[in-house]
Amino acid sequence: MSLSRNEDYSDIAYDGKAKLMTGGLFADLHPGGGPFLVSAGAYAGKRKIKLRAQPTANVEIGDQTYTPAQVGRIDGEAKLSKLQPFVGVGFDNTYVGDRGWGFRALAGVSFSKAPKVTLAATGGALASDPTFLAELRQEEAEAREDAK
User: Fold this and answer.
1) Distance from C-alpha of 42 to C-alpha of 36, rounded to nearest angstrom
2) According to the model, what pLDDT value does residue 39 have?
3) Is residue 77 within a helix (H) or strand (E), and if so which, with residue range?
4) H helix or E strand, kind and range, residue 46
5) What percentage of residues in the chain have a pLDDT greater than 90?
6) Best CA proximity match to 30, nearest among 100, 97, 109
7) CB neighbour list of residue 104: distance below 8 Å, 6 or more residues apart
8) Integer Cα distance of 108 and 28 in angstroms
């Protein structure tokens, strides 16, 4: 699946593109043979979000304000963990009794590592300035924390 979305984050307008290719493998246990179930398994696959921003007005990066000419373009990427364990409980009466239809509902929790977020600036007057890069690393850390 691929998604595109424009979103403002920390006063910076980003164009985002998500590429998701995920599948899952699960096992359901029906204690006592009834419709209630416990499910466990995992989702696996590639889940990546690419970001691009070209500021047209002053923006705050880290704790400083910069002009578009100083920033240039910001490219970023957020990678989500490739494996996500899952556990849940539910109700499934599809195969209980002699009927060929049923109802299924499942609620659960999926666990994931913190996403890896990277940001890089190119084409701006300060793209290689150590002070600017330190502020960009702070912005990256804030984005990583928010993505959790």
Assistant:
1) 20
2) 97
3) strand 72-79
4) strand 36-53
5) 65
6) 97
7) 90, 91, 92, 93, 94
8) 12
- Burial grade of 2 (CB within 10 A; 0-12, 13-18, 19 or more): exposed
What is the DSSP code (8-state) at residue 34?
S
Nearest alpha-carbon partner for 20 in 55, 56, 45, 50: 45
Predicted pLDDT of residue 29: 94
Structure tokens at 106: 């499942």
pTM of the model: 0.72
Cβ atoms within 10 Å of 117's Cβ, excluding its own? 21
Q: Is 136 exposed, middle or buried (0-12, 13-18, 19+ CB in 10 A)?
A: buried
Q: Cβ atoms within 10 A of the Cβ of 38, count?
A: 14
Per DSSP, the three-state class of 124 is coil
DSSP label at residue 125: T
